[in-house]
Q: What sequence folds into this?
């Protein structure tokens, strides 16, 4: 388990800076990736090459893995399961919701908790992991309904999720240096700032 | 290492049905034989004895056929040759492959100019056209073969499963280095030998033998799990080398099926092999990274999960062996 640091990151300043920098960004849209290696690899590439998708998974992983190996193990059990359940639901429900504000809120919540480095109880961490994982999976499934082999692409994304979450969780749990925890918290603060940006963006129009 | 079981094996299983070692791109060769005149060779993978993939070359509309296309089925491929002429040459024009978007096949394109310079590119379902360059681009040539090699190993689930089997047997890092190196050296040898035309292995028995190599590893993994020993467990690099020779012939099929021109063969071979190594190392590091993560997270797997990879490797190896043997017998008959 990482040692807790005393430094506090300027979350508000980062959020404002990110908001100002992002004001002129074009609207982010769901996209499908074609690797030429088939739908499973397309799904793998889609997740691996989509920063917006990766950010939420990474911050959820940071949130759990910062608390040590046990929450990390719960993360590996809950996140893929919840994500897959949400993904299948997203595939079966023909909806295309515009939920930028909700994604922003998820970024803000999880990123803020990572940045704040609060010692949350395991049930709270597990609950957050499950809810955010299912939410992310649902959005992914809904975005894939137009894909010709949506089921295989979803499977590819799911496998990529397991691999990425496992690698990141193992890395974070193994970090022992004081400064490493600061780095993790900074990452969380940036994702929270991005969440603020997304919320502002969704209400802009 | 055993702890990576169900995730990796699941990945391999789900991709196996669609991707099991079937890499036969079509091949388009345009050779400038005189000013503004080109010999065209168009090879499309065959489907059985008389059928072929529905891929068609669309040259610029103002191209004129000097000779009519002559078609022949050879070595499981549909080959067509003809000569075309275009005022001003093909430079700057767009060539399109009709039907490519509805397949999972790639097309390798090689254009040879009068001065001996070449343009090599690879068309995919997502990019079925290319523009003929006025000047050659060596980087594109390198990228094409490099990607072809990487794609070949990533699509070749049987190769990856064999590497996974080796990783599950190997006990320590030094032995892992020796084993992976032995596999690499062995398949590089036969890849070169087969691609350069010094030896060849017919595809049906080769595929059955590769499947057998995977089946062979299954019981060995179970032996490791039970704490037993064997020649394979003590010297996995020997087995990696021996079976690596077989897998090299398999890699060569990815290059040979295209009928690559002799002018580029050494360069293509090197880059293709490097691409294969990149894909293989990526896979190895991914597995090692996941195994390390599981150790860090102090996961204690149930017994069935520990046994699963060995049984999965063995079961898939057995399935492919039977399937490919049946195909082989049908081929002989």
A:
């Amino acid at each position: 388990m990482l040692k807790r640091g005393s430094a506090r990151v300027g979350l508000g300043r980062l959020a404002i800076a990110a908001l100002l920098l992002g004001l002129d960004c074009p609207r982010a849209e769901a996209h499908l990736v074609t690797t030429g290696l088939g739908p499973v690899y397309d799904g793998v590439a889609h997740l691996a090459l989509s920063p917006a998708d990766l950010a939420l998974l990474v911050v959820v992983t940071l949130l759990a893995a910062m608390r040590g190996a046990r929450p990390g193990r719960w993360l590996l059990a809950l996140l893929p399961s919840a994500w897959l359940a949400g993904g299948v639901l997203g595939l079966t429900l023909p909806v295309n919701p515009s939920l930028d504000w909700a994604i922003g809120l998820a970024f803000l919540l999880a990123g803020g908790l990572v940045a704040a480095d609060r010692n949350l109880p395991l049930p709270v961490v597990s609950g957050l992991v499950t809810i955010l994982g299912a939410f992310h999976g649902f959005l992914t499934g809904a975005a894939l309904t137009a894909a010709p082999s949506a089921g295989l692409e979803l499977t590819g994304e799911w496998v990529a999720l397991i691999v990425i979450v496992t690698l990141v969780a193992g890395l974070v749990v193994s970090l022992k240096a004081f400064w490493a925890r600061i780095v993790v918290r900074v990452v969380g603060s940036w994702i929270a700032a991005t969440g603020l940006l997304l919320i502002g963006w969704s209400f802009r129009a | 290492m055993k702890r990576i079981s169900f995730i990796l094996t699941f990945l391999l299983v789900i991709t196996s049905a669609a991707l099991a070692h079937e890499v036969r791109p079509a091949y388009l060769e345009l050779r400038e034989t005189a000013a503004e005149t080109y010999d065209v060779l168009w090879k499309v993978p065959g489907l059985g004895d008389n059928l072929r993939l529905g891929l068609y070359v669309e040259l610029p509309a103002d191209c004129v056929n000097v000779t009519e296309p002559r078609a022949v089925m050879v070595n499981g491929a549909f080959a067509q040759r003809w000569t075309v002429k275009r005022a001003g040459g093909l430079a700057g024009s767009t060539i399109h492959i009709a039907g490519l978007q509805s397949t999972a096949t790639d097309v390798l394109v090689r254009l040879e100019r009068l001065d001996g310079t070449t343009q090599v590119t690879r068309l995919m379902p997502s990019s079925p056209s290319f523009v003929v360059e006025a000047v050659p681009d060596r980087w594109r040539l390198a990228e094409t073969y490099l990607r072809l090699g990487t794609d070949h190993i990533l699509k070749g689930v049987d190769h990856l499963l064999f590497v996974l089997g080796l990783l599950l047997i190997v006990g320590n890092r030094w032995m892992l280095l020796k084993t992976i190196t032995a596999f690499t050296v062995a398949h590089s040898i036969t890849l070169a030998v087969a691609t350069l035309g010094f030896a060849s292995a017919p595809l049906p028995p080769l595929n059955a033998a590769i499947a057998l190599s995977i089946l062979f590893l299954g019981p060995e993994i179970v032996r490791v799990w039970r704490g037993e020993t064997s020649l394979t467990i003590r010297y996995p690099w020997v087995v990696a080398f021996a079976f690596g020779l077989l897998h090299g012939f398999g890699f060569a099929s990815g290059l040979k099926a295209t009928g690559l021109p002799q002018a580029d063969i050494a360069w293509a071979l090197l880059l293709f092999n490097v691409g294969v190594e990149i894909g293989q190392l990526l896979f190895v590091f991914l597995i090692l990274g996941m195994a390390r993560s599981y150790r860090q997270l102090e996961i204690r797997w149930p017994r069935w999960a520990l046994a699963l990879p060995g049984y999965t490797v063995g079961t898939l190896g057995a399935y492919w062996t039977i399937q490919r043997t049946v195909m082989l017998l049908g081929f002989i008959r």
